[in-house]
Design a protein that fits this description.
This protein is mostly helical and 142 residues long. The protein is 64% helix and 0% strand. The protein has six helices and no strands. α4 crosses α6 (112-131) and α5 packs across α6. The relative contact order is 0.21.
Length: 142
């Protein structure tokens, strides 16, 4: 996680950049009282990841609705923020088989009843992004 904080988004792997952009757009749409999924549909379709959109939207909705503390997303910053690094690390953990670590992290982020649905939505999102060549990954250019 700490290798991501305050790193330029431009040095992230393509999967991480896709995910951080989607997270930021989702938050911006929600803040503007727009439907995030409708706003993101073209971007997901363009990347061949349209099948991941429903689970991505579910993951973000769970975080938004059941967060133990507010999650801060900086929609205009060129750097990865603390909370964004946590979300990227969650996705990376699931891609690399560290499910227990991801569940533990989620238990700190969301209410108890939201852990399982949030975990499932994120796991499916990460898996589908991997299938289209956009897996959240650890490749960070220096």
């Amino acid at each position: 996680m700490y290798d991501l904080i305050d790193r330029p988004v431009s040095v992230l792997s393509p999967g991480d950049r896709f995910l951080i952009d989607a997270i930021r757009l989702w938050v911006a749409a929600r803040s503007a009282c727009q439907c995030p999924a409708a706003l993101l549909a073209a971007r997901f379709a363009q990347s061949g990841a349209l099948d991941a959109l429903g689970d991505f939207d579910g993951w973000m909705t769970q975080l938004s609705t059941h967060a133990r503390v507010p999650i801060q997303i900086n929609c205009k910053c060129g750097l990865v923020t603390d909370d964004e690094s946590v979300l990227l690390t969650l996705a990376r953990d699931l891609v690399t088989g560290r499910d227990a670590k991801a569940r533990t992290t989620l238990s700190l982020l969301v209410a108890e009843e939201a852990i399982a649905p949030t975990f499932c939505a994120l796991a499916r999102t990460a898996a589908m992004l991997g299938q289209v060549g956009l897996p959240p990954g650890t490749n960070v250019r220096t």
